[in-house]
Amino acid sequence: MNKSFSIYLDLVRFVAACLVYMYHSNQRWLVTDILPVSNYGHSSVIVFFVLSGFVIAYVADTKENKFSVYAASRLSRIYSVALPAVFLTIVLDAVGRQLNPGPYFYPFDNFFLRAAGSLLLLNEIWFVSITSFSNVPYWSICYETWYYIGFAVVMFLPKRISTVALVALILILGPKIVLLAPLWILGVVLYRWKRLQHLPEKWAWVLVVFSIAGLWVFGQTGVTSLGTAYFKQLIGEEWHAQFTFSKFFPTDYILGALVFINFAGMRGISGRIAPILLTIERPIRFLAGFTLTLYLLHQPLFLFWGSVIRGDPAGYLFWASTTAMVAVSVLAVGYMTESRRHLLKRSLEAPLQRFETWVRKQYANHH
Questions:
Q1: Three-state SS for 338?
Q2: 341-365: string of b/e by CB count within 10 Å (b at 16+)?
Q3: How far apart are CA 7 and CA 17, in angstroms?
Q4: Among 117, 173, 115, 116, which residue's Cα sits nearest to residue 147?
Q5: Is 88 helix (H, G, I), strand (E, B) or coil?
Q6: DSSP secondary structure code for residue 109 in this structure
Q7: How far from 148 is each of 101, 181, 221, 266, CA to CA, in Å?
Q8: By CB neighbour count within 10 A (0-12 exposed, 13-18 middle, 19+ buried), where does 30 fall?
Q9: Distances in whole angstroms, Cα of residue 310 to Cα of each of 83, 100, 208, 318
Q10: By C-alpha distance, which of 16, 36, 12 is closest to 26?
Q11: How far apart are CA 242 and CA 84, in angstroms?
Q12: What global pTM score does this model have?
C-alpha cells in the first residue's frame, strides 16, 4: 500500500468516526437545532466495513501471514479498547443516571448477560440484539470481529476443514451478521484484484468523480429510507424489526459499491495528490490512532458529560462543551488503551505461537 493512499484511508476512518459521533449526539436535550451532517451514522459504519476488509487483507498478506501473529494483532486491537469500553460504560451510565436520568432511556439491567455478551461479541447473533447498556454503537464491533474470524478460517485452515468451519460459523452467527459480510468482503476483493491495482490514471479519476457524485446522490435522495421501507413491505414489520442494524442491507450494498469504487480510484490517483496528503499526515495519523476509542466510547461519554454539565440546549455551546469533554476523555482513555495495544499483542504472541505449533503437530500426526 503506498503511503499517500494509507493516509487517505486514515483520513476516511477518522472522518467516518466523527460522523458517527455527530449522528448519535444529534439529540434535542443536547442541542435544539438539528446538527449539520448528522444523518450519516449508519452509512459511516458501512464505510468502516469496506475499509476494514481492505486493511485486513493487506496486513494478512504483508505482515500477519501466520495465524499466531494475525490472532494476536486482531485480539489486541479489539480487546485493548472493547474490554475497558464495556466496564467504563457501566460506570459512566451508573453515575450519569444519578446526575440526570432524563437522557438515559437505554437498558441498565441484566448486567452479567449484557457484559458477557459484549465481551464475547455475541450481542447480535441470529435475531438476538443485546444492547451494551447505553453503548448502542457497540453493535458494529460485534459484526466486524466475526468477519476477522471468518477471514482467519479461510486464510489459515486447510481448505477441506475451512469449508466446514465456515459453514458452522455462518450457522452460529445467523442472517444479520452474514447479510453485511459482503460489504467487508468488498474490501478484501479491492485489495486482491490485481487489475485494479494497475488502473490507468485517467480511469482512476473517472472512478473518483463517479463515486463522489454517487455518494452525494445517495446521501441527498433518502435511498436508505426507500430501501428499508421496501424490505419492510416485503417481509412484514415484525420480521423487519428483528433485523435491527442489518435491515438497511439492500441499500448498504449500493453504498458499499460506491465506497469500493472510491477507494479503487483514490488508490490510482493518490500519487498525484500525495503532496496534499503528506502535508496532513502527522495530524491524521495521530487522530486515526484514537478512532476505535472514539467509536466505542463516544455515546456513553457524551451522555455522561452532558449529564455533568447540564447546559442549555439552545444554541451550540452546551453541545460543543460536551463534545470537548468527550474529545479529552477519548484522548486520555485512548492513550491508556488503544495506543498501548502493542503490549497486549506482545503478551499474546507467545502462547498463540505455542498453540499454533501444537495444532500443526496434531494435524500432521493424523495425516
A1: helix
A2: beebbeebbeebbeebeeeeeeeee
A3: 15
A4: 173
A5: helix
A6: -
A7: 37, 10, 33, 25
A8: buried
A9: 29, 8, 44, 8
A10: 36
A11: 29
A12: 0.90
Tens place of pLDDT for every residue, the chain, 367 residues? 788 999 999 999 999 999 999 999 999 999 999 998 888 888 999 999 999 999 999 999 998 888 889 999 999 999 999 999 999 999 999 999 999 998 998 988 988 899 999 999 999 999 989 999 999 999 999 999 999 999 999 988 888 888 999 999 999 999 999 999 999 999 999 999 988 888 888 999 999 999 999 999 988 887 888 888 888 888 888 888 888 888 888 899 999 999 999 999 999 988 888 888 899 999 999 999 999 999 999 999 999 999 999 889 998 999 999 999 999 999 999 999 988 888 888 888 888 888 877 777 766 666 6
Cell numbers found for residue 230: 421496501
Q: Which of 231, 209, 129 is nearest to 174 (CA)?
A: 129
Distance CA 290, CA 78 (A): 13
| Number of domains the chain contains | 1
Q: At what angle do helices 291-309 and 317-336 cross, to 10 degrees?
A: 130
Integer angstrom CA distances of residue 165 from 124, 159, 321, 366: 20, 10, 49, 18
Burial class (CB in 10 A: 0-12, 13-18, 19+), 236: exposed
Q: Show the 3-state SS of 57-79.
A: HHHHHHCCCCHHHHHHHHHHHHH
**The three grid cell numbers given for residue 330, joined into one nine-digit string:** 477519548
Q: Which domain holds residue 188?
A: 3-365
CA distances 219 to 41, 210, 222, 223, Å, are: 11, 14, 6, 7
Sign of CA dihedral 335, 341, 344, 346: negative
